[in-house]
Design a protein that fits this description.
The structure holds three protein chains of three kinds. Chain A is mainly alpha-helical. In chain A, about 70% of the residues lie in helices and about 0% in strands. In chain A, strand 2 and strand 3 form a beta hairpin. In chain A, helix 11 packs across helix 13. The longest helix of chain A has 27 residues. Chain C has a five-stranded antiparallel β-sheet. In chain C, strands 6-7 form a two-stranded antiparallel sheet. The chains are: A mainly alpha, B alpha/beta, C alpha+beta. Chains A and B meet through helix 8, helix 9 and helix 10 of A and helix 2, helix 3 and helix 4 of B.
């Protein structure tokens, strides 16, 4: 089946990329000149993080029909959790040289660390919060929303309101997350300086592995009966209820898992770009994720990952060469992918392959929304 | 106060109105254990609304709906009611179109329905056996790998009935099972439903009089949200009011 | 000469007093000759001594004294040792242009070393303002008098009381007289006499300005007050606090209503399109922006200060945004019927394109749309409540749109069709309603109203490419809160959200107010997933 082959192709490419970077940048001596430079490493690492985020969104949107317009919130929360750890690592090397308080707190004349910053000096704690902060938010939000059967566009709109409210909140200095400027000026991670090429390589490799892991786990999860219940919820929520499934619990589990994966993506993203600020919470950021998934092919985890990489490569290209044209292009992609590519690039390729083989096209998924 | 009743399904004085329109108007129906009952009535008589109330989709403005004499159906939600043992086949066939027939049947398979179980569940041999048995009973053995959406209308009806069987409910609510079926299929369906009665309690909503005749059971006629007549088919069809409603339109 | 010491100062003062008496003799003499001869002493005085100098000058009624005080305050009063007199010195580059104090005759330019500037500090400056203020009370320009009174109110000084009373007797203008009386009241509170204090309290009774409230609070801190006076003062203060609160609420309410009207104009079109077609149009905010830019463009052709320019903008914006809406419906939304989430995404794409289009054409910066003369300014009811005309216009405009729309929906065949499609598309279609045509027209209508909302918005805020984005989330909240397919619900939701926003602002700050509202809506929708005034029934369910 061609679809299966494309999936394997995506999977294999990621493995090949990881293997190449591992060999070229870690195993072979630099004199061979095959190593990726640090700029490319950061770019590729970023794309991989976005691909993880796309997989997370596809889990709930593609398979469970929950169109979240607030997934950037979970990504950012994971990012902030990592950022807080990195801030605490700066220690006395900050501009003000305070042993505990990050620079922005000293600047605001704060006397002591707010309670929610406790524990972030330990990596294991930050590591847990990367999953728990977005997970708990998703749990609380989802518990309320799904229990009251908020669905469809209503759910989309309130997820957008959620991320918008969080953005406004994080802009406030009083929140204790660095306000407008966010968290930045990181020095090192686990004792290794972030600016060194070695750390960049490992961060990129970790992102690649995290992507493979999330793809693998989601695929395994969707292959169980749980995955089939999710699809049933997506296609006919009320039917699933009458079959005796507690739909809200299934949605909640999927939503929380997705939020945690998004948090992981954010946590890997922050040390690579060196900053996290409230702009990451913007509704536009969330909705860009949706276009990655829509263009790649919703309902296909590999399509989503592919979409994230393709769209972001296009973004890098456009913002570099034709910054004016980027929004035109992005907007056009939204329209085209919804009008002409209901199943995304991967879906279109599959249909094409089917037609070439002379088979009847596979059942269109137009009905799902 | 909960009235004492031996009925499997006890509906008393149910009323539902939508923006002034009375979909149910003081409706009362009583189903004895193992009974097969046909409910007929013109469009808008309240048949689907009645099923909505029984399955928890719609809340009545007033009235009582009891299951097995003790479960108040007016406060439980769809999932709870389904898990108590009331299964429903919809008027519009609603199988999961993007899942295969086999997967649809698997979803319906009786058992623990928690997400955790769904993740951990591995089908046991007896599960496969019962799925295959039901598939052959509804004539879908050859179509197990087909997507639900690729089935014909009649096949979808069969699949839904099959799913209903796998749920092992105490009460089956079957909404227009014969729609889109050939005559022989219709008779087959009637036979199937008759065979289910006794072990299960079955309520069938149907337009097709031949089908109702084939069921050969007690008939309830609904009109404008209330019970117009009740009894055997010959009995109700000789009722003047029923004749007016059906012929005098 | 050495720096002026205290005995020297005393001598100067005596001389000064002498010269003051002397000058009274020549009250009607043309004041060209300089009479104030202690310039050097003034320039050399310490700040404390300068305060005494100022007091003395203050009691001098002459034009010269006024000018000295004014230039002193402005920092252009300099002592010129060469001629041993005070002159006006305006810094130009590194040199000072000197002018005669009275005649303003140019005296040539000198370097900073050749002169001695009479310096001030903040406390001197405010005292100077006071003194000058009491002098300006005699100005023939009522606005000057009013601003002088306002200045004096900030620091009521018992010493100016006689002057004030004299002015009051001759004041003709009602408003000035009222303000003056209040000022005298404030001044009287500074008195030690109980009967004067009582008169002061009587005079300020009902005053709502912050100065009145502050003076009263300060007055009550005085431990030597007569108990009777304290009682009256306390009652007065309570009354002021209470009415300030009421007026403050009134002001918030007014701001809230105007915000609510903007939200209403933004959301009502959204509610129509969402109600009729069940689709969320994410480009709706950009239609608002198009309307605002239409106003901007029209102002380039028709003088912006004329009301005509605004009045022409309204139908033009309706047509521009409405046409854009119909095009969007025909080209995109029609093909996505029945897939609300895809529609949401496609229209979001369109919104990005429109934003970038406007940015490319008009530039990324905000454009300022001029408010017509008729709408600038405000009706000041009192110190705590004023009605700005532009906000009043927005409220009235929203009301007009609402009434017109209601008329269209209730009374025209088109309205009936729109409502029919909203309630039950299938049924309407089988009854012969051309649902596609209704879709397109309803979409045009909703977008057109958004465009008119943009015109109204341009009177309140700057017009930029992100204008639509900042209102779209709020508009959604209105629709979600009010429920779909119900005009009344939308109106109620828009106004209550607008008012709630403005009411919360003083308590919690603007950003927190917004967050609170969003959180409220998120919680609300859990309770009433279909909004406050949702349609009931089977048609509304799936």
């Amino acid at each position: 089946m061609i679809g299966l082959r494309l999936r394997q192709l995506v999977f294999a490419s990621i493995i090949a990329l990881i293997a190449y970077v591992f060999l070229a940048n870690v195993m072979f001596p630099a004199s061979m000149g095959v190593a990726l430079d640090s700029y490319s490493l950061t770019i590729v690492g970023k794309y991989l993080c976005f691909a993880i985020l796309a997989v997370a969104l596809d889990l709930v949107w593609g398979y469970c029909g929950i169109l979240s317009l607030g997934h950037a919130a979970f990504f950012s929360l994971g990012g902030y959790a990592m950022g807080m750890y990195l801030m605490r690592q700066i220690g006395e090397r900050g501009t003000y040289g305070h042993p505990v308080l990050p620079d922005f707190m000293v600047f605001l004349n704060w006397e002591q660390l707010p309670w929610f910053w406790y524990g972030f000096d330990a990596f294991w704690f930050a590591g847990l919060m990367i999953f728990f902060a977005p997970g708990i938010l998703a749990f609380v939000f989802g518990w309320f929303a799904f229990r009251s059967r908020v669905s469809g566009v209503y759910l989309s709109i309130i997820t957008q309101a959620l991320t918008y409210a969080l953005m406004l909140a994080f802009f406030r200095n009083e929140m204790g997350f660095g306000g407008n400027n966010g968290l930045t000026d990181f020095k090192d991670l686990l004792g290794y300086p972030l600016t060194s090429d070695g750390v960049r390589v490992w961060l990129m490799l970790s992102s690649g592995l995290a992507l493979l892991l999330s793809l693998f786990l989601c695929q395994k999860l969707l292959a169980t009966k749980f995955g089939r219940v999710l699809v049933a919820v997506r296609d006919s929520e009320s039917r699933t209820r009458f079959l005796g499934y507690r739909v809200e619990h299934f949605k909640l589990v999927a939503f929380v898992m997705s939020a945690m994966i998004a948090g992981l993506a954010g946590a890997l993203y922050v040390p690579q770009v060196g900053i996290i600020n409230p702009g990451e919470f913007s509704p536009l950021a969330s909705i860009e994720v949706v276009v990655w998934v829509a263009l790649g092919g919703r309902g296909s985890l590999y399509g989503a990952a592919l979409g994230a990489i393709v769209v972001n490569a296009a973004k890098t290209f456009f913002t570099g060469f034709y910054p004016e044209a980027w929004l035109f292009f992005l907007g056009a992609m939204f329209v085209i992918s919804t009008l002409y590519l209901p199943r995304g690039i991967l879906g279109a390729l599959e249909d094409l392959a089917q037609q070439v083989k002379g088979k009847a096209p596979k059942l269109s998924q137009e009905g799902l929304s | 106060m909960i009235p004492v009743t031996r009925s499997v399904l006890y509906l008393d004085g149910l009323s539902v109105s939508f923006d002034g329109f009375k979909a149910l108007n003081n409706l009362s129906i009583d189903l004895a254990p193992g009974e097969l009952r046909a409910v007929i009535g013109p469009n808008g008589a309240g048949k689907s609304t009645m099923m909505d109330v029984v399955t928890g989709k719609t809340r009545p403005d007033e009235g009582t709906a009891l299951f097995l004499g003790s479960h108040d159906l007016t406060v439980l939600d769809e999932t709870e009611i389904a898990n108590l043992g009331i299964g429903r086949k919809f008027q519009k066939p609603s199988v999961i179109e993007t899942l295969t027939v086999e997967e649809n049947l698997e979803l319906a398979l009786a058992g623990n329905r928690s997400p955790w179980q769904a993740i951990m569940q591995i089908l046991r041999p007896q599960d496969h056996r019962s799925m295959n048995e039901v598939a052959s009973r509804v004539g879908l053995t050859d179509a197990l790998d087909q997507l639900g959406g690729a089935l014909s209308h009649g096949q979808k009806q069969w699949l839904e009935i099959g799913m209903l069987l796998l749920q092992e409910p105490k009460v089956l609510l079957v909404d227009e099972p014969a729609a889109g079926m050939t005559d022989s299929e219709t008779l087959k369906t009637a036979e199937l439903l008759k065979s289910l009665a006794g072990e299960h309690t079955v309520m069938v909503v149907e337009h097709d009089m031949e089908f109702v005749e084939a069921l050969g059971c007690k008939v309830t006629v609904l009109h404008e949200g209330r019970v117009l007549a009740e009894g055997s088919l010959p009995h109700v069809s000789s009722n003047n009011e029923v004749i007016d409603v059906y012929l005098g339109r | 000469m050495s720096r002026a010491s205290s005995p020297a100062l005393r001598t100067h003062i005596m001389v000064r007093v002498g010269s003051f008496i002397f000058s009274l003799f020549f009250l009607f003499q043309v004041a060209s000759a300089q009479t104030f001869v202690q310039g050097k002493a003034l320039a050399d005085a310490s700040l404390k001594e300068k305060a005494v100098w100022m007091e003395k000058l203050a009691s001098d009624d002459s034009e010269e004294a006024t000018r000295i005080l004014q230039y002193w305050l402005d920092g252009i009063l300099v002592y010129w040792p060469q001629e041993n007199r005070l002159v006006r010195g305006i810094k130009e580059g590194r040199r000072y242009q000197l002018q005669d104090l009275m005649t303003e005759e140019a005296l040539g330019a000198v370097s900073s070393r050749e002169i001695d500037r009479v310096k001030t500090n903040n406390s001197l400056r405010s005292a100077l303002k006071q003194v000058l203020g009491s002098r300006q009370l005699g100005s023939s320009d009522r606005n000057v008098r009013l601003s002088a009174i306002a200045e004096l109110k900030r620091r009521p000084d018992y010493k100016v009381l006689p002057l004030l009373k004299k002015r009051e007797a001759s004041e003709q203008d009602d408003q000035v007289a009222r303000q003056l009386s209040e000022l005298i009241g404030l001044v009287l509170l500074e008195s030690a006499e109980a009967n004067e204090q009582m008169e002061g309290l009587r005079r300020i009774s009902g005053g709502l300005s912050p100065e009145v409230k502050d003076s009263l609070s300060r007055f009550l801190l005085n431990p030597n007050l007569d108990p009777g006076v304290v009682e009256v003062a306390q009652r007065e203060l309570d009354a002021i606090t209470r009415s300030l609160m009421y007026w403050g609420i009134g002001q918030d309410l007014f701001f809230g209503l105007s915000l609510g009207s903007v939200l209403l104009l933004a959301a009502i079109g959204l509610a129509i399109t969402f109600g009729v077609m069940g689709v969320i149009n994410m480009a709706h905010g950009e239609f608002i922006m198009l309307g605002a830019y239409t106003t901007f463009v029209i102002q380039q052709w028709i003088p912006a200060t004329s009301m005509w320019s605004l009045l022409i903008s309204i139908p033009t914006a309706f047509v521009v945004s409405g046409t854009a809406g119909i095009i969007l419906e025909r080209l995109v939304i029609r093909h996505l019927y029945g897939r609300p989430l895809e529609t949401l995404l496609a229209t979001f794409g369109v919104s990005l394109i429109l934003q970038q289009l406007v940015r490319t054409v008009f530039g990324p910066l905000n454009q300022s749309v001029v408010t017509p003369d008729l709408l600038s300014g405000a009706l000041d009811i009192n110190a705590a409540f004023s009605v700005t005309y532009n906000r009043l216009f927005v409220i009235a405009f929203a009301l007009c749109v609402l009434v017109t729309l209601w008329g269209v929906m209730q009374r025209t065949p088109f309205g009936v069709r729109v409502r029919a499609v909203t309630m039950n598309r299938g049924m309407a279609s089988s009854m012969g309603v051309q649902t596609q045509r209704v879709d397109a027209l309803a979409f045009g209508l909703g977008s057109g109203i958004a465009g008119m909302g943009g015109v109204a918005l341009s009177q309140l805020t700057n017009v930029g490419p992100n204008l639509g984005q900042s209102y779209i989330v709020d508009s959604f909240m209105v629709v979600v809160f009010g429920g779909v397919g119900n005009l009344f619900g939308t109106v109620f939701a828009a106004l209550s959200l607008g008012v709630a926003n403005k009411m919360l602002e003083p308590l919690s700050g603007a950003v927190l107010a917004k967050i609170l509202i969003l959180v409220f809506i998120i919680l609300f929708i859990q309770k009433r997933p279909r909004g406050l005034f949702a349609l009931k029934g089977r048609a509304a369910e799936d």
